[in-house]
Amino acid sequence: xxxxxxxxxxxxxxxxxxxxxxxxxxxxxxxxxxxxxxxxxxxxxxxxxxxxxxxxxxxxxxxxxxxxxxxxxxxxxxxxxxxxxxxxxxxxxxxxxxxxxxxxxxxxxxxxxxxxxxxxxxxxxxxxxxxxxxxxxxxxxxxxxxxxxxxxxxxxxxxxxxxxxxxxxxxxxxxxxxxxxxxxxxxxxxxxxxxxxxxxxxxxxxxxxxxxxxxxxxxxxxxxxxxxxxxxxxxxxxxxxxxxxxxxxxxxxxxxxxxxxxxxxxxxxxxxxxxxxxxxxxxxxxxxxxxxxxxxxxxxxxxxxxxxxxxxxxxxxxxxxxxxxxxxxxxxxxxxxxxxxxxxxxxxxxxxxxxxxxxxxxxxxxxxxxxxxxxxxxxxxxxxxxxxxxxxxxxxxxxxxxxxxxxxxxxxxxxxxxxxxxxxxxx
Length: 427
Hints:
Blueprint: H1 7-15, H2 28-33, H3 40-52, H4 60-67, H5 74-78, H6 85-97, H7 104-116, H8 120-135, H9 137-145, H10 153-161, E1 181-185, H11 191-194, H12 196-208, E2 211-214, H13 224-228, H14 232-246, E3 254-256, H15 259-265, H16 268-271, H17 279-288, E4 289-291, H18 292-297, E5 310-313, H19 317-322, H20 327-335, E6 340-341, H21 357-360, H22 362-379, E7 383-386, H23 389-402, E8 407-410, H24 411-421
Helix pairs in contact: 1-3, 3-6, 12-24, 22-23
């Protein structure tokens, strides 16, 4: 479903809401605050007032309610009328950003994303500095002296949520001989630095299934964070660059192991629908994009060895609510001998990561994470599986804060462990 709309399309989208209230119990911020203005139905009313001129588009109280939205799209799953809330919110934020009344904080956020995410070398340099900081005595000194506690809350939250960075980022491995089918894989912006092990596991699994994995050299950020921040111009520019990079290769599919990235990439056709030079190619790109779990579950799996762990699965919002992929991860987990799958009470409720949300809304993010940790602890699982790097980082931070003895993994990592336990090797 398209995720952008002009003024006429926005009015049509808003008109689909019949105010039934089914979305209320699906909305994490409404459940926390109990305020209509922080529910999908309430935010739609505010957006309608803004778009019709009955409310000033730059009014701080109004924009505060929009900014508090996680854009998790759980309301779309709950809505019986098919209201495309993600599209409504992205259009509303885009209209604000393209107007004269955009808040300075919003503009700075978009500018920072423009300066960092499309630039692989800048990200690598920043991650190298963080890697050095984590391994130096400086971090211990700052924590022991209480200096970190005096930093602004967003910086404290960012520092506390960082996983221990691996010594080396992901590097595309040599491909085994004899693989006759080819897929392309998105490396992404920060995932090669934060979770290279997930990329390594993904490549090994795809190799064992008979696929050669290629990594287009000119790929850039998928544009999801920019789009969610209202910077549609930048999101479209990044989408065009990725389309050019990926469609040059002779591939069967574009495989993504980051749910947030995959969701946006599947919507490139809508994002560039009004671009005659890219419309058809964007639609083809979107149709070729597959989350790695939905891609792998459609294949015939080789023999799997035993992985004796108790696992609970956290649905990544943009996999379950945007891409509507719910059964593939669970089917793969149940296929692995030795795994005991223990469902969370609310597996599809947002953990509070939501892209930059934990930085720009740290208080609400912390409340959502606390609820998630209560849910995880109740399962007694010693492994928390999910399908998105932002979720992995948020869940790891929560486990550390609570002192819960469990590890966080991507589902594909457990499948890789099972294949290795069976002695599986790429052909």
